[in-house]
Specification:
Shape: globular
Largest sheet: none
Strand content: under 5%
Order of helices and strands: HHHHHHHHHHHH
């Protein structure tokens, strides 16, 4: 009887694990929506302190966000489209310049690198491996749009009902500890909201500084598109800024060696400025986390959930550190 019920329990556990894997993507969307809602909550509370009810404050924040995104797209899409077209048109010339490099010529004579690369790119195998063909591209785009729509709808719901959601979650704690749980929970959520706002400010600084310097070095025809890439990638902790700098520097070297060297020097200096001046000042009131734990959290989050995991890792690690300090360490000190 013990063996039978033990085996039955194992089967039930395995069945529940399979269900969890099936609903895992949906749970991830819910977490992202909640993360974004908590990030926008400081703006909602700002308008509430000015006398607006929460429902109207949410409407104002969402309206401002939608208008800002619409204006941004109207201003940026034509420019980015033209600059991406220029990049695409210039790519064959860069490839020819690369082909006439002495190092590449030696490698091509020995291993046939250029012909293999041409056949790999033009043969369609690259597109099929990355996207699974044209159908795969369409399905991925539709899937992304559907997920974005779900995240936006859930984010609006969480943002409008965040106080009730927090109250409901806090009521699961015993009455004797509910006040402490509420205090810690609110502190964690405030830290997440401040972290989202701070990450946006840091990324904006990276994008604007890249835009100005690209115009200075004579890459104005690609400046907007490349600055947008840098700003978007800078949101990713640890590696995002480096990836963006490598992309911009590679295009700079393909255009002119001196331009590439100037971009390398600029990003080396700017990343030191961002790491030791901008980021600490912006994040000083958001997450209280040692540098080593920040690196470990970003690496673990990226390995588990990719870009989304890297974004969620730092505030999650800060929350765990706070809980450990307030609960575990206090309990140990009291013994």
């Amino acid at each position: 009887m013990i063996g039978f019920f033990g085996g039955l329990g194992l089967l039930v556990a395995w069945f529940l694990y399979g269900l969890f894997l099936m609903v895992g993507p949906v749970l991830l969307l819910i977490v992202v929506a909640m993360f974004l809602a908590v990030g926008l909550n400081p703006a909602v509370e700002f308008f509430m302190r000015r006398g607006l009810k929460r429902s109207w404050a949410v409407v104002v924040v969402i309206t401002v966000v939608v208008i800002a995104i619409a204006l941004f797209l109207l201003a940026i899409v034509p420019v980015v489209t033209d600059q991406v077209a220029n990049l695409t048109a210039s790519a064959p010339g860069w490839f020819d310049q690369l082909q006439h490099s002495r190092t590449v010529e030696r490698l091509d004579q020995k291993y046939g690198v250029v012909e293999k690369l041409k056949s790999y790119v033009t043969g369609g195998s690259l597109g099929q491996q990355v996207f699974g063909g044209v159908l795969g591209v369409g399905l991925k785009v539709l899937g992304f749009l559907a997920n974005a729509f779900v995240v936006v709808v859930m984010m609006l719901y969480f943002l409008a009902t965040l106080p009730r959601v927090k109250t409901t979650l806090f009521r699961f704690a015993p009455a004797s500890r509910r006040d402490r749980v509420t205090k810690l929970g609110n502190e964690i959520l405030e830290g997440i909201g401040a972290y989202v706002s701070g990450a946006f400010v840091v990324a904006l600084c990276a994008g604007v500084s890249s835009l100005v310097f690209l115009f200075i070095v004579g890459l104005g025809q690609y400046a907007v598109a490349l600055a947008l890439v840098v700003a978007l990638l800078d949101v990713i902790p640890m590696i995002g800024a480096t990836i963006g700098a490598v992309i911009v520097c590679a295009i700079g070297f393909a255009t002119d060696v001196q331009t590439g060297l100037a971009l390398v020097i600029f990003y080396l200096v700017y990343q030191q400025l961002e790491n030791y001046v901008i980021y600490p000042r912006v994040m000083s009131h958001t997450v209280d986390l040692p540098g080593l734990l920040t690196v470990i959290a970003a690496l673990v989050g990226a390995s588990l959930l990719g870009v989304v995991g890297a974004l969620l890792a730092i505030p999650t690690a800060a929350a765990l550190v706070l809980l450990s300090r307030e609960i575990v360490i206090r309990r140990q000190d009291a013994r």
